Task: structure prediction
Amino acid sequence: MGRQIYEAVVDGILVGGVYGLMAVGLTLIFGVLDIINIAQGILVILGAYLSYALSVHLHIDLFLGLLLTVPAMFVIGVAIYWAFMRPLRGRERTSMSLLASYAVAIIIEGILYWIFSPNYVQLNAWYVISSVRVFGFYLPYIYLFGFALAVALVVVLYMILYRTRFGRSVRATMQDQTASRLIGIDVNRVAAVTFGIGVAVTAVGGMVYGATSGGFNPNSGYDLISRLLAIIILGGLGSIGGALAAAVFMITLESLVSIWSPNWAIVVFYAALVLVLTVRPSGLFGRQGVRLQ
Amino acid sequence: MTALLRAERVSKAFGGVQALSDCTVEVARGSITGLIGPNGSGKTTLFNIITGYERVDAGDVYAGDRKITNAPPERAFALGIGRTFQLTRIFPRLTVMENMLVAAQHRGVRRWHNPLARAGGQADRRRATELLEFTGIAGHAKALADTLSYGQRKLLELAYVLVADPEVVLLDEPAGGVNPSLIQHISARIGALNASGTTFLIVEHNMDFVMGLCDRVTVLDYGTVVASGPPEIIRNDPRVLDAYLGTTEEDDDAPDP
Amino acid sequence: MTPAAMTGPDPVTATGLLRRAAAWRGGGALVLLAAVALFPLVFTNALVTTIGVDTLIFVAAAAAWNIFSGYSGYISLGHAVFFGSGAYTVGIAARDWQLTGNSVFALLPLAAVVAAVVAVPFGLVALRVRRHTFVVVTIAVFFIFQLMAFNFSFTGGTTGVSSPFLAWNPGTYNDPFYYLALAIGVGTVGLSWLIRGSRFGLQLRAIRDDEDRARGLGVRTMRVKLAAFVISAFVTGLLGGLWFYFISQVLPQSGFDPQFDLSVALIAFFGGLGTVSGPVLGALVLIPAQQYLTEQFTNDYLSQIVLGSLFLGVILLLPRGVIPTSSEKITSWRARRSGRLAAAGAAGGAAAGAAGREDPR
Result:
């Protein structure tokens, strides 16, 4: 039993790190654009299918393939922003963006079904199959590689945000769009690039998810987006650190509960969100909201 | 006689910034009390605490003898404390008349009424129209509030707070960003309401406005009261000039941007 | 003779314009109602009447959703919780109490009550948070309910609950469902109209515009929001119950269906959020269109892509919905015309201008 708990915790942390990366993309988009990108889940699956196509048809290694899929997802993200998010204006913008991105998700899901059929597929490589003994038990290499890559990318994102001029613009826009416009920041460009970055991380998330989840199909996008949403709300919307911590916390919790019952694990996942919000409406790590908006 | 409204030794910090420390402000029944002080001295925070939009760290708020510390906004209003906001907050997608009816019927005896009855009975509409006429925007009653100018919004906000006959009205910069002729108008309306029994607590940077209208002025600086008294005394109090960083009062005539 | 006098007994005033618009609206509603009521008598094809029942269920569901989300501005993507609860309630009750035949319709009020009861704790938790967080909490609660339906034994797990089809004449099998859905729809739209003009509705719309300001004017926002949420849930649960008998089966993924949440929201957005007639119009246009598309494309995925594109087009091209956009166009056209007629009278123009800014219904 103790051993099972130990394994569940290690597993939760490693998988949680990857979820953290995907959630950071989502929460970053929210922070800058005040948009929740419901399509994030299906975009992860799209990323997974891109890796799948590259590895099956062109025999390109999964990690090497990221050099192609990450820029591709970035471009897709920017395109989605320009075509569907930027035109939204007015008071209902927030709700409209939710529905628009939901519609984008439905379209992408339909396209993926059409091309790849509903059959489950899995990404394969030597590091998916062979295991290594870590922390006293066996794990496929991909868990370690994926976690390491996710951590590295989060560090890179952090450096971009806090060490570059562009990052300063992003953070300024997150705090006050109008003021940023006034001091000469091209908010539209910042928004487009942020959306691109937020979507680009799904290429990595998708590759690792495709290799570790034991099979995926276009419908897996719903499962992903609902978890990611729960994570970023729990972490406090717009909080990058919060998203990371919440991802590790939630996935570990789920992993622990599934020792007892895999069916109820995911229920506990959402119930934890609802419970936490009852006590702290702004999430675990979000700033406590002021009543005066 | 106890004050109509009293904030007693109230403290409030935001992060490391002490917005209010040990601040005591009283508003006498029937008075027009001015609350002045430089930007960031805690005036709006005090308003927010009295009307339930912020919680105190320490201290208490009393309405008459009743302790209302940390009462939520709807309760503060039910107790007869109405307020306006520095940046006016109206309901943009309701008509001006509908704005007026949101606040109606909240005072007095509560009896059961049909929840699905049309909003605003005869009496409510008559009262609302009276107040709109009183503030001078009755001609816009059927327009969406969104279409009002900034000055008209200020008047609407004043009008709909008055619908429920509050005992005391807290005005946050009623003259801010408003043209001089409208300032005259607003000032006259406040005077008339006060004459008929409404008490006011007013935050304002326009010194002529405050000194001309108020019968008592309290000066805040760094979250504490530095002086309090009749306008003619306050006008010449060196501590007040000091609080305004050595500037003369004439320089402060310009409304805050 | 002044130009204004030429318009006859109805002078060009804001009141005149509004009264005439109200008469048009009332007349249009009656004509529409008559057409919908006669529909199954003209089109007896079961495929067509099935689309009719679906459409009317969505008319009522979107109107019910709009009573809460449209008026309060709290976008719920979890109303399938109430729909599913209603469907499972009648399904389980009929199974366990071994009710068959027409008596099962007596269970419909129970479905509505169960959904309303579910809405109380759901609302008490979810309505503490706002905007995006609220939306996500409703999604989370939705998934909890779907997963519970999958995992509990009394819900039948993945096989769900089913009942034998009612022993009715196959030729007119859909008609009772059609008229029941129509009655619920008319009732809901009527309720929506009453609420919109009431003090309760005014408070809801004040919450939509500025919730904190509304609290500062004494509106007990939690109570108001919760009441609207429960009313909305009640109707949605009733529809869920009706739908269960219509298809005689409920599965976790069909009772608690994310597409249902999205559809009611898009219908209301398409017609005009927070208007009385918007959700009706939205459902009458979108549901038949969707069903038609599904028929047209043998490829399911292609119809999904077309449907998504249709929704996206609606959002991008008609961001405020058909009713608000068109009513604005009509009033501004009328204002221009009456402005020309009453060219001399500046007052007429001003009054028409004020009417042009009237909130669309």
